[in-house]
Write a structure and sequence with these properties.
By secondary structure, the protein is an alpha+beta fold. The chain contains seven helices and eight strands. InterPro entries: Cyclophilin-like_dom_sf, Cyclophilin-type_PPIase_dom, Cyclophilin_A-like.
Length: 217
């Protein structure tokens, strides 16, 4: 896993332009944001610069599924219901077949709107499970999609949530600190999937010098 992580990290620096650090009580997570989803990337960077993701918390953690942070669905939808004359704010979907819900992917949460547009400030880290060829075959039939050979390889080796593909925007991925994300996803929660102990995090944008450091280690 370390070799794979370093391989992706060294390639990521050449291919992508924006990296962030998610600092948690369990360690740091390094994430690259995809240039292929520029609106989600830029919206996320804007919110980070505004301080929205400073001392935030993982407020919904579902084991072997996702670890979610930012504003909850219920809070967003309640506010919108109380202000029916104010247009709902959503970010147009940037769903690309090559950006998929492998373990470690960063996605944007949303409600069940038909356009599949995203909430502005709700994110999730994919945990998921190892998939089999039979499970992937069944999903292809059910969803009318086709997984590439490389996607199948990833889903069978490290896992993910392929049933979310083509329905939610994936706009980044973990390139270092996957074990930290696993630890967060394993915390004890209540019946509403909220961690029993606050799992706080702060997100910062990295400069080029900070990005290169892990590659030299």
């Amino acid at each position: 896993m370390l070799t794979i992580s370093l391989f992706f990290l060294s390639g990521s620096i050449k291919a992508q332009t924006t990296f962030v650090r998610l600092s948690t009580s369990k360690g740091n997570i390094l994430i690259k944001l995809y240039d292929e989803t520029p609106h989600h990337r830029d919206n996320f960077v804007r919110l980070v610069k505004k301080g929205l993701f400073r001392d935030q918390e993982f407020n919904r953690v579902i084991k072997d599924f996702v670890s979610q942070g930012g504003e909850l669905d219920e809070t967003i939808l309640k506010r919108e219901k109380l202000n029916p004359n104010v247009p709902a704010e959503r970010l147009a979907a940037e769903i690309r077949t090559e950006l998929f819900h492998k373990k470690g992917a960063l996605g944007a949460g949303r409600d069940d709107n038909p356009e599949k547009s995203s909430f502005l400030d709700q994110i999730y880290l994919v945990q998921g499970k190892i998939q089999t060829d039979a499970e992937l075959d069944a999903l292809e039939v059910k969803k009318g999609i086709k997984f590439s050979a490389s996607q199948r390889e990833v889903y069978k080796k490290i896992g993910g949530i392929p049933r979310l593909d083509n329905d939610y925007t994936v706009f980044g991925e973990i390139i270092e600190g996957l074990a930290v994300a696993e630890a967060i996803n394993a915390v004890a929660t209540d019946k509403n999937d909220r961690p029993l102990k606050k799992e706080a995090f702060t997100i910062t944008i990295l400069d080029k010098k900070e990005i290169r450091k892990p590659v030299k280690q």
